[in-house]
């Protein structure tokens, strides 16, 4: 059976056959999500049996809540789970095994409504909105949503994100639950590591700086730091990263950053720190790598040269806030007049 969107929909009597066909169809690709780091929104802090990693551990013989093989979250208005492939991969298709309690009739009468309306994204960050929407369910009902779902998504990315929501003030179709939760027993992401293609991902992409087509090896996009025809050109001076869209930080001596990851080839200019020299000095520090501490009498200081540009702490005055208030005055800017103290020296 096929949904209106061309995605696989299988039920009771064909499920076993489908597993066999799925294994054959995916033989050419690698499950690149297996044992990779995973995240679960709203986990149970006291129950490791529902950990996010359960959905990428390769186990799917027990699809029940307490079988120790599923990622399960609390019921909330949003539900998010993602797997970090650790590097950008060439993805072909994604398969999701929903929690069924090992009993499909119970899945369709007591669980499926929590999964209706789900979305699957592939992104280079944990922000799904910065990525590609691979699938959005606006077709399934609680009676036809597949217990095992597969969608083809020929894109490149590092994070595969499952998301669902039930937002206040939004009217959802009949049969949808009022809250959502994660119930993922396995998420398989089939494809190749970036830079490889073909049967069993055994061929290196012919164009070194390209993400290549999984079947043909043709260039489909540039790896971070490269641009142009067949991705042969490095980013222009002062830019780096994906599609050369990110600007370098404040590198010393106007040195360009590394065009692939943005790190500075030299130290940072005064007033900035970090590998990419994009982090301004925190309050109270200045200079090279923000290693110098501002004068204690300053209300902070200039992050470049340490001058007290923002003023003095109460009780101090002068250009560098080195002078205590004159006798008889106190406070911010030494603008307050002392009262009638018995000891005139205090």
From TrEMBL:
A GO molecular function held by the record: scavenger receptor activity
Q: Which InterPro entries match?
A: Galactose-bd-like_sf, MEGF10/SREC1/2-like
The alphabetical list of record keywords is: EGF-like domain, Signal
Instruction: Look up the domain of life of the source.
Output: Eukaryota
SUPFAM superfamilies, alphabetized: Galactose-binding domain-like
Q: Where is the signal peptide?
A: 1-27
Classification via PANTHER family = EGF-LIKE DOMAIN-CONTAINING PROTEIN, SCAVENGER RECEPTOR CLASS F
Q: What is this protein's record name?
A: Multiple epidermal growth factor-like domains 10
Species, as recorded: Magallana gigas
